[in-house]
């Protein structure tokens, strides 16, 4: 089974980031975490890539911008996340 390329921009003390990473960890998904704490240039790049969204987390699966924690959880509830992660 091939796993997708997952990237999450996060902050160390963000409860939504922790929740999103917990879900990915529970699914045994390897992901690349990019922390934005104290890095305005990294946050600016995230904001540009996320179409102006400044909140964390911002999550990508392959080249698809999922959005934040709420969107990730909605995909899980709808039964669509596993297909995205293995696609």
From TrEMBL:
Signal peptide: none annotated. GO terms for molecular function: glutathione disulfide oxidoreductase activity. Keywords: Cytoplasm, Disulfide bond, Electron transport, Redox-active center, Transport. It comes from the Bacteria. Residues 6-66 form the Glutaredoxin domain. NCBIfam families: GRX_bact. Has a glutathione-disulfide oxidoreductase activity in the presence of NADPH and glutathione reductase. Reduces low molecular weight disulfides and proteins. PANTHER family: GLUTAREDOXIN 2, GLUTAREDOXIN-1-RELATED. This is Glutaredoxin.
